[in-house]
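Loading example: each entry is read as two labelled lines plus one structure line.
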Amino acid sequence: MVKILFEKDKCLGCKTCELACAAAHSKTRSLLGAIKEKKVPRIRIKVKNGKLRAEQCTLCSSPRCIEVCPVGALNRSKSGIIKVNTLLCTMCGLCQEACPFGAIVLSDYPTVCDRCIEMDEPFCAKACPTRALEVKAV
Amino acid sequence: MENCACNTCDAATKKLYEKAKSERIDTIWDRALAMQPQCGFGEMGLCCTNCSMGPCRIVKISEDGPKAGICGATEDTITSRNFARAVAAGAAAHSDHGRDIALALYHAGDKTRIRNEEKLFKIAGEWGITVEGKDTVQIAREMAERALGEFGKVFGKLQFLQRAPEKRIKLWDELGVAPGAIDREIVEVLHSTHMGCDADYRNIIRQAIRAALSDGWGGSMIGTELSDVLFGTPMPKKVEANLGVLKKECVNIVVHGHDPTLSEAIVLASRDPELLELARKQGAEGINVVGMCCTGNEIAMRQGIPMAGDFFQQELAIVTGAVEAMIVDVQCIMPSLATVAKCYHTKLITTSPKAKIPGAIHIEFNEQKSLEIARRIVKDAVMNFKNRKVEVFIPDDKSEGRIGYSFEAIIKALDRVTNSFAHPSGTVKPLVDAIKSGVLRGAAAIVGCNNHRQPHNTCHVTLAKELLKRDIIVVTTGCGAHACIKAGLMDKDARKYCGKGLATVCELLDIPPVLHMGSCVDISRILVLLSEVAKYMGVDISDLPVAAAAPEWMSEKAQSIGLYAVASGVYVILGVPPAVTGSENVTGYLTKGLESVLGGRFEIENDPVEAAAKIAAHVENRRKRLGI
């Protein structure tokens, strides 16, 4: 499994990770492409209750999103990431509500961090100018 | 925190924010919250986008991050360049406002449109314009031409620099910061901060100082002085302030922005019997013109028009549901107004070719046809009265105060206590005497905007009260003035906040302890006052027991003002740090280094109570140095 650790003391809130994520998931792997295709980032830097936090799938041990999905559209792959079966998904949004980390956003279908599994390294961590996101294989 | 985004000490603001919330209308506070976190690179001034090799960002937080831009620009170069460009933009905004006033004077064409001949002759004398054998219009035209020349003259220095104390003029000359032509100084900042030009942060700041001085002692001063010639020098008068000045039964017109040429014409048109009759036919009791932001200050000072609110209250004025038209010109106009206005019947009318807003109705203003256009706009507002959609809610919060303390008005107030047998009237002697004797410890200016990083109005008001308590008299302009009048600090009653000395001075001169000196370009009035006091005492401005503070500043104009104040020798406290904190050298230079060069410096302090203590300490230090 690939974990991404967020060091909030290093984060300057520039949101480069968000842009890189959206670009990584566009067809042309570019920011312009992401905007055109309306790709949403799967990591979001937010301030909640006065504290900085990164909203991103943590690959938690008992994912609530899978539990609540009434049609079984979400499941965990071998590499630990949450996969969405878009054929089954009815876009009800229960997974989004259930995730305690605010990691899921409904953009048509649920979007969850896939750790850029098809690339060599998660783009968010690669793009972070302050190295606030650290990739760890566990 | 999410539940209470609107952090303010003003009751009307709170009530209308709640109304906006209940009607699902986003205002500045909601947008500020949604913007969190804000990019730390921008906040520290460490992001450079001056060329398309960038954006380059200096990463200080991790050891292996880049420490120079792609061209090699260091954090010192990048932060100082960004700062200088902000100053240049601020100086441009103020100065272009001044230019528009000069153009209005040039096109005045008719004697009745020049309301203050006395000041016209005074400035003519100062600038060496001969008046013999010329009529008023001719003199005005010549003066306007000279003023317009200040923007682009090839040789020489700005004429108004001569108003500064001799020592200051000499210092500026020695340092090479005395500005030549206003436009040129701004252009030079843009040139020298272009990719591959100036890399020395001290030299970049030196250039920024020239641009800033060309604002304070140039563009702004031209704006103020020629506005006085056209529309009259402000004199003390009572006005009401805060959103409670809107009237449910009347056609409400909010004029918002900066340039008095538009607002003066609107005020005139609103008194037109024909339009008043039309308003009555529409079921309204009358036409109620109120002012917002600096336009509010301008027409309140000259016409006694109520001051509706400050920068952060512009959207809320529309949220009352009682505003038929909001008429705007330039600067500090939130583009969001168009969206908010769409939720009500309010017509947002833009008037300047320099500031159009998608969704607003654009009726271009021009000085030659000012009254005609103003009548048309007022008529549009009147006809909109019957279209009110939602239930009108006007908070009952309003306060009263005495405003209009131009330099001339202050001298007049001082004349009340001048013994005309022993001393000539029309001088700052009584003020100097009060300071020398220690009855007044000193003076401070509280100026500037609103900024979501600081609690709205709270910082202005807390700082003012803390200073009054210490017998430091306060002068104010801009949105700081709105905050102070709303808190009742321009009322006679405000003497209760003062120390004994200041309370006595206020009583003898019959003035409030916080003096409203005008809009943000009118900070030039404060420069003139400081200069006259320094000259009278035979010292430099930097020797005086005075300070300035911008506790809630946000605009580029405020950075220009801050820098020209520092360059004029004033100790300036900023409640919000400028985007230079990414460089210790630049921050250190602005907050310490500059003092040994110019006698003034910046201080960054967000806590208004601490800021007051620092101002008091500075004032006492200067008193000691003067031996008083």
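The two ends of chain B are 48 Å apart (CA to CA).
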